[in-house]
Amino acid sequence: MKTPLISIIIVNWNGKRFLKDCFDSLVKQEYKNIEIIFVDNASSDDSVNFVKKNYSKKLNLKIIKNKENYGFAKANNIGAKIAKGEFLLLLNNDTKVPKNTLDIIMKEYPKLENPGAVGCILKNFDGSSQNKGFEIDQVGYPVGIAEEKMGSKKHKKIFYPTGAFFFIKKEKYLKLRGLDENYFMYMEEVDLCWRLLLNGYNNYALTKCFIYHYGGGTSKFSYNQNNLVTNKLILYQREKNTLNMLIKNYSTINLIKYIPLYLIINCAEILYWLLKFSPSISWIYVKSWIWNISKLKNTLHKRKIIQKKRAVSDKKIKKLQIKSIVKFKLFSKYGFNVQLK
Questions:
Q1: Are 21 and 155 members of one domain?
Q2: SS3 per residue for 323-341
Q3: Which CA distances in Å does 27 have to 57, 124, 210, 321?
Q4: Is the pTM of this model over 0.90?
Q5: Is the domain of 243 the same as that of 184?
Q6: Considering only 10-19, 37-46, 274-283, which range has the smallest mean pLDDT?
Q7: Under 8 Å CB-to-CB from 63, ≥6 apart: which residues?
Q8: Are 158 and 204 in contact (CB under 8 A)?
Q9: How many domains does the chain divide into?
Q10: pLDDT tens readout for residues 208-217
Q11: What is the pLDDT of residues 60-88, one digit of tens each?
Q12: Domain end residue (candidates: 190, 213, 236)
C-alpha cells in the first residue's frame, strides 16, 4: 500500500510542559512515514533543547527557531514551505495522538469527496468529549457541532476542523497561500476553510478517530457551567480577525447584509462592558475596527483574488452555517457571568 509522507508541523511558544506527551505519541505512531517540523516562536523555556535532546534520534525531525513570536499562522506557513510531504498536518503542541490516528486518516482520505481540510474528534485528557468539528453563524462566530448533527457515518462534512489537528494536502494549502499571516492567533483555520469551500473543496471531520487536547495551551479560554472565561488578547484577536474574514470571503450582497449586523452586535457588546464599568474592554472592539481600517487596502486586494477564484456560491456554503447568532446564545446561557483576565 502506498504510504505518502506526512509533514507534521508543530508550532510552539513556551509550551515545553506539553511536549513530552505530544512527541511521545508521535514516536508510537503505527504510520511511520512522517517528518516532524518543529517551529519554535522564540520560546524562553528551553523547548528547543528539550525536543532536540529527546527526539532528534527517534523521529525524522526538523527544527526551525524563529527570532521572534510570529504567531500561529506565519509559523505554520514557514513550516509548510520546507515540508517535503505530500500531506501536511498542523498539530497543536498540547495534544496527544493515539497510535492508530494517522493510519485511520490515510485509509479514510481516499474515500472523501474532493477533500479540503480534514479533522478528527477532540477529547479532553480525561476522555470526555471536547469538540467534533465546527460550524459558524452568519457573522462568522464559531460553535461546536452538536452530537445529534454528527450522525453515525465515518466522516461528516463540516465548515471547518479545529487548527489543533488540521490535515490537508500540501498542494491545496500552498495553492490558497496557507493561513493568513495577518492573523496572529485565532480564526486563521476558519478563514482558510472558508476559502477552501469557496474553491469547491469539502472540509471533513472523521468521526471514528480522535486525539487528546488540553485546549488553551498557549492562551487561556474556557467555559464552565457558570462562567465564560477569556482574556483581552483573545477577544481582540477574535474580533479583528472575524471582521477581516467576513470582508474577504462573503459575496458583495452578503457583505452588505452581514457587516452592519456584525457591527451592531459589537456596539451592543461595547455598551455591555461600559455598563460593567470596563471601558478598557469596550475599547478592544474599537481597536479591532481601527486595525481593519488600517489594513483595508490589503484586505480588499485579498478579497479581489478570493472572489475571482470563487467556484461556489454563498448559498451552498450557508448550508454549513447556523442561522442563529452564537453570541446571543452565549449571553442567554452565561448572562453577565463573563470574565476577562
A1: yes
A2: CCCHHHHHHHHHCCCEEEC
A3: 10, 21, 17, 38
A4: yes
A5: no
A6: 274-283
A7: 38, 40, 48, 51, 52
A8: yes
A9: 2
A10: 899 999 975 5
A11: 999 999 999 999 999 999 999 999 999 99
A12: 213
